[in-house]
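Session log. Operator J.P. requested a structure for one protein chain; no other inputs attached. Running the standard single-chain path with token output.
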Amino acid sequence: MTYSAFEQFEIIRLIPIHPFGNLDISITNSTLFMALAVGVFYFLYISNIKTGFLVPERWQSVLEIVYQNVYNIIKDNLGKEGNKFFPFIFTLFMFIAIMNMFGVVPYAFSVTSHMVITFGLSLSIFLGCVILGLINFRSQFFAMFMPNGSPLGMAPFLVIVEIISFVARALSLGLRLAANITAGHLLLAIISGFAWTMLIAGGFTSVAAIFPIAILIFVTILEMAVALIQAYVFTLLTAIYINDAIHLH
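Structure written below.
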């Protein structure tokens, strides 16, 4: 039986639910791990509220560092007006970071490796920013597609380019996250498969397996860093897009 590195991305129906013919709302491994991410976030949040020591413990220190970094993102990109978006952006960061970290755990499912999930998030954020911009500026919101000081003769070309660039946000935000997570997990699967093959081969090959195992440990640590960095980048870009909707550049 051959193993494919892509098997780790397969969506499995755990509880099939088909209430109306072709309508499929089954509980899958993707659903399960998203629910687990929400549960972990809730547990960390509640435990931090209940303890709240003046001298923070380990998990409280971690949450305070995350809290401060997200607050700095909002402060640097949105100013004081962005404080009302803090709960959303903080929750978004924690949700994505936890799901990314789940993917590093052996036999766990990496939700953010699926474009349908990350695109759903990015499209929702994109539409929310457009609606927010229209509410704040109405028809003036479309002025952002015409850079200040641009020659009038270049207006049609610049407007088309700006619209394409603006709409591409809905795709690029989710694509960047899914592509980075998928690439990293494929690399982990390939290296681990290679190391296991060397281990069971016997003889000198088994001893030489220490090298791919060392590489695997290094790549795993790197993937954990990438998981947090990608959550940070997704959150940072979200703050920048919200800034355009409330300040109209």
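Operator note: The beta strands are 13-15, 27-28.
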